[in-house]
Write a structure and sequence with these properties.
The protein has 106 residues and is an alpha+beta fold. The chain has 4 helices and 3 strands; from the N terminus they run αααβαββ. Strand 2 and strand 3 form a beta hairpin.
């Protein structure tokens, strides 16, 4: 499928704009947003019924799902993290031995 250069540029600009706004939040605002989101998800039937859940490690001002991952672990759920393996994206159980990938992400 050919890439639409105009569309790609618009997506990249939007991503940068969102990242700038995220980074402008204070640590307290980031923490409040994280806890609020995690509370909402923790009470959803999808979360409660799931026996395995994929998470991510926050980077660059991304909202942290770490409180939710900790809760999931205490509930006996299998927590998975995305890992780049060569050219593939795979998911590994957490805790796992993580090494930084080519983007510097553990």
């Amino acid at each position: 499928m050919p890439s639409d250069t105009k569309s790609d540029a618009a997506k990249a600009a939007l991503r940068q704009q969102i990242k700038t706004r995220r980074l402008a939040l204070t640590p307290k605002q980031q923490q409040r947003a994280s806890l609020s989101l995690c509370r909402r998800i923790a009470t959803s039937h999808l979360f409660l019924r799931a026996d395995r859940i994929a998470f991510y490690l926050p980077r660059g001002g991304e909202i942290s799902t770490l409180p939710l991952m900790e809760l999931a672990q205490t509930m006996g759920k299998l927590c998975l993290l995305p890992v780049i393996d060569g050219q593939k994206l795979i998911f590994k159980a957490f805790p796992a031995r993580l090494a930084d990938n080519r983007f510097g992400i553990p």
